[in-house]
Amino acid sequence: MERLKTDILIIGSGGAGLFAALHARSAAPDADITIAVKGLLGKCGCTRMVQGGYNVALAAEDSVERHFMDTIEGGKWLNHQELAWKLVTGAQSCIRELENEIGCFFDRNPDGTVHQKAFAGQTFDRTVHKGDLTGIEIINGVVA
Ligand SMILES: Cc1cc2nc3c(=O)[nH]c(=O)nc-3n(C[C@H](O)[C@H](O)[C@H](O)COP(=O)(O)OP(=O)(O)OC[C@H]3O[C@@H](n4cnc5c(N)ncnc54)[C@H](O)[C@@H]3O)c2cc1C
């Protein structure tokens, strides 16, 4: 058995793991970061399979409160509400990070704004997507 010593160990290389690695790198540039994964890095996990897209309240007529309530209703009120709030509020900065820092390119409207479609029980068209290959766009961007 090979033993490795590392400063930061991340288990899994889906969206969460790869984002954790990127953020760990910027928070601690000199740290030794290791990603342990049971499949191929960037090729396994659910994130790569995402077809629908990424829900985020961006439009002026939409709101994080509405996104939050859709999330809670969708979860039949079983969700951990603090985490659901973190999800809907964090989604706004995360989508900008994906486009502006990581280089993902999501579908646009003719006026250049990000296209958002109806999806998955949301009461507002708020799903950002890249055709139906959104997960591949995100993972390829993060891995690059
Ligand atoms: C077909 C499909 C479509 C989906 N569509 C959407 C959608 O349109 N919109 C949406 O918001 N969500 C969608 N989801 C849900 C979404 O993909 C997940 O919620 C999200 O990707 C989870 O990200 P993650 O990084 O936590 O997990 P994952 O992306 O699943 O990554 C988990 C990682 O952990 C690794 N791992 C697991 N066990 C071990 C272990 N024991 N040791 C080491 N590594 C391990 C895996 O190999 C993988 O690398 C979809 C899911 C599926 C399956």
General description of the model:
With 144 residues, the chain is of the alpha+beta class. It folds into two domains: 1-45, no CATH class; 51-131, no CATH class. Helices cover 39% and strands 10% of the residues. It has four helices and five strands; from the N terminus they run βαββααββα. The chain has helices at 15-27, 64-74, 81-102, 134-143; strands at 8-11, 33-36, 54-55, 116-117, 127-128. A three-stranded antiparallel sheet has the order 3-5-4, with helices on one face. A two-stranded parallel sheet has the order 1-2. β1 (8-11), α1 and β2 (33-36) form a beta-alpha-beta unit. α2 packs across α3. The longest helix has 22 residues, at 81-102. The radius of gyration is 17 Å and the shape is globular. The structure holds flavin-adenine dinucleotide (FAD).
Number of helices: 4
* Strand-pairing-aware structural class: alpha+beta
Question: What is the ordering of alpha helices and beta strands?
Answer: EHEEHHEEH
The CA-CA distance between the termini, in Å, is 30 Å
Strand order of the largest sheet: 3-5-4
Total strand segments: 5
- Assembly classification: single chain
Proportion in helices = 25-40%
Average pLDDT over all residues? 95
What are the distinct ligands in this entry?
Answer: flavin-adenine dinucleotide
Biggest β-sheet strands, sense, barrel: 3 strands, antiparallel
